[in-house]
Amino acid sequence: SSELTQDPAVSVALGQTVRITCQGDSLRSYYASWYQQKPGQAPVLVIYGKNNRPSGIPDRFSGSSSGNTASLTITGAQAEDEADYYCNSRDSSGNPSYVFGTGTKVTVL
Amino acid sequence: QVQLQESGPGLVKPSQTLSLTCTVSGGSISSGSYYWSWIRQPAGKGLEWIGRIYTSGSTNYNPSLKSRVTISVDTSKNQFSLKLSSVTAADTAVYYCARYVSQHWDAFDIWGQGTMVTVSS
User: Fold this and answer.
1) How far is CA A1 from CA A23, A104, B81, in A?
2) HSE value, Cβ hemisphere, 13 Å, CA-based, for A102
3) From CA A50, how far away is CA A22, in angstroms rounded?
4) A29 and A92 in contact (C-beta within 8 Å)?
5) Which of A25, A84, B53, B84 is least enclosed by beta carbons within 10 angstroms?
6) What does the alpha-carbon distance between residue A1 and residue A5 come to, in Å, rounded to a whole number?
7) What distances in angstroms separate CA B41 from CA A87, B25, B66, B91, B119, one per listed residue?
8) Measured between CA atoms, how close is A98 to chain B, in angstroms?
C-alpha cells in the first residue's frame, strides 16, 4: 500500500509562516486532505481538494501540491494552531483504501 | 448538523473480538454519497484507516487488517459497526468513526469524539 511521509516536528514563531509537507506516490494522482489534532481531541479537517477550507477554518490555512508533495501552509501562525497535523489521500496502489501521513507536530514559539 | 458517536466496551481480552458501534445523529446515514469509516490511533502514534462501508453495504478494508475486520451498517438504526477479531495488545487504541465525502471533497469531514479500547487480560 502507499505511504505518506511527513517531517516529525516543526516550530514557528508567533505570527510567522510555517509550511508542512507530505510526500508520497499517491499524491501524484490524488489531492491530499489535511487534519489538525489537538491533544485529547479528534482530528479536524482543515484543507481538502486543491485548496479548500471547510466552513469555520481560518483563511490562514492553505494547501498546495506539486508532483509527489502536498503542503499545508499556516500564514501568521497563532498559539491555537499548535497541534499535530496529518495528511491523507487515497491509496494509489490499486486498493480502494486510504492512507494517512506520519504526522507533524507544530510548535508555536 | 450531523454528529457521530462511538460506543462499545473499553476493555477487551486478548484473542477476543472487539465490537464498536457508531451512531449517526442529525441526518440519515443513507442520504448523500458518503462512505462511513473506522480509523484508529494508538497512544502517541499516528492515524490508521481500518475500513469503510457504503450504505449499500459495500465494504473496503485496510489490507493489513482485512483478515480480521468486518464493518456492517444498520440503516434502520442509523448506525454502522466495527468488529475486529483475534485482538492483541497491538490493537489497543482510540477508535474513531468518521464520514468520508468522496465527491469534490475526498476527505473525512466529520469525526466522532473517539473511544478508547484497551486489549488486556
Assistant:
1) 14, 21, 24
2) 12
3) 14
4) yes
5) A25
6) 13
7) 14, 23, 17, 9, 14
8) 6
**H or E stretch covering A73:** strand A69-74
CB-based contact A98:B49 (threshold 8 Å): yes
B42 interfaces chain A, CB cutoff of 8 Å: no
- For β-strands B115-119 and B107-111, DSSP reports them as unpaired
Q: How far apart are CA B28 and CA B11, in angstroms?
A: 30
Q: Which of A96, A98, A102 comes nearest B46 by C-beta?
A: A102
Mean pLDDT of B67-71: 98
**Chain B CB within 8 Å of residue A85 CB:** no
Could you list the beta-strand ranges (E) of chain B. 3-7, 11-12, 18-25, 34-41, 48-54, 59-61, 69-74, 79-84, 93-101, 107-111, 115-119
Looking at residues A84-92, what average pLDDT do you find? 95
Instruction: Express each pLDDT in A17-52 by its tens digit.
Output: 999 999 999 999 999 999 999 999 999 999 999 999
Q: Which residue of A has its CA nearest to B47?
A: A100
**B62 — pLDDT class (breaks 50, 70, 90):** very high
Q: Please report where in the chains the cell 509527489 appears, as a residue.
A: A68
